[in-house]
Amino acid sequence: MFLKDYLNINGNRLNYYESGYGKTTIVFLSGFGTPFAIADMYKLATLLQVKCRCVIIDRFGYGNSDIVNTERNLENICNEIKQVFKLLNIDPKKTILLGHSSANFYSMYINKDLKLKGLILIDLEKLTNVKLLFTKFIYSIYFLLTKTFMKKIFDNCVNKMFERSIPNEYKLEGKSIQKNKIPNKCIKDEMKWYCNELKNFENRIEKDSLSKALLVCRKNTFKYNVNIKDRFKEVKILNVGKAEHYIHYSHFYMIVKETLRYFEI
Predict the structure, then answer these.
(1) How far apart are CA 96 and CA 118, in angstroms?
(2) Cβ distance 244 to 151 under 8 Å?
């Protein structure tokens, strides 16, 4: 069972879920636009809570966290996550940051400042200028059309992520959040830095500067994971082969098994 609670971060309420006990803490971060982190990470956290303390964060603008006026850029978002560490007495040296998609970049950036036990990066991929421009174009159209029928169509597509083996309460709450809260100012703001800054992200990470890492990738992203492995002090690449972007939905048992083995939990 996950405990739901709030933290006061810079005068705003940030929602998180926590469960499990153990010497190792795993902090879960969902990717861009994922409306409800507990539903996204439920399978992984449920299995890992048996041996670890699991903390799932809703960044501002997501889930039940506040919509804030603070600019949604890399530095601000990472500073807020580091405040969560302090408020929940999370020891970085005993903590693994688990991210998916764009949250991988938050995880790596935080690791520049905090000496972590490790990183689990799910589907880390190269974001070329062309891909970023295309993503910006698609979402810009979506933001413009959120008051039209396009909103309903997009919501129905996102809701498919909730049609999995997760508790009904999380399914229903996730769909409600997507319908009534997504998108919002925070997500629009986050999109700006995502498209403007990530193309140069690699230049911020020096060789051998990051902690031990488990890189979970698929056939389409394997090459990039190999190319970036020199940024980590120690690395294991888990290639699941042909799979969708949300690798942790279909390969959660494999990820959990390798996490426990690789980090000796």
Answers:
(1) 5
(2) no
- Fill in the amino acid letter for 79: N
Both structure tokens of 221: 């992203």
The whole-angstrom separation of Cα 199 and Cα 214 is 23
| pLDDT > 80? residue 199 | no
Measure CA of the first residue to CA of the last residue in the chain; give whole Å: 21
Confirm if 159 and 170 have CB atoms less than 8 A apart.
no
Find out whether 57 and 28 touch, Cβ atoms under 8 Å.
yes
Q: CB within 8 A of 82, min separation 6: which ones?
A: 110, 113, 114
Q: What is the pTM of this model?
A: 0.96
Residue 202: pLDDT band by 50, 70, 90 thresholds?
A: confident
How are the residues of the chain apportioned to helix, strand and coil, as percentages rounded to the nearest 5? 50, 20, 35
In sequence order, the 6+-apart residues with CB closer than 8 A to the CB of 205 are: 108, 112, 231
Cβ–Cβ < 8 Å for 121, 104: yes
The full set of domains in the chain, from first to last, is 3-262 (3.40.50.1820)
Q: What six digits make up the tokens of 147?
A: 């008051």
Please provide the DSSP assignment of 32-68 as one string: TT-S-HHHHHHHHHHHHTTTSEEEEE--TTSTTSPP-
Q: Which residues does 177 contact at the CB level (< 8 Å), separation at least 6?
A: 35, 36, 62, 63, 64
Express each pLDDT in 40-74 by its tens digit. 999 999 999 999 999 999 999 999 999 999 999 99
Rounded to whole angstroms, how far apart are CA atoms 149 and 179?
12
The reported pLDDT for the residue numbered 262 is 98
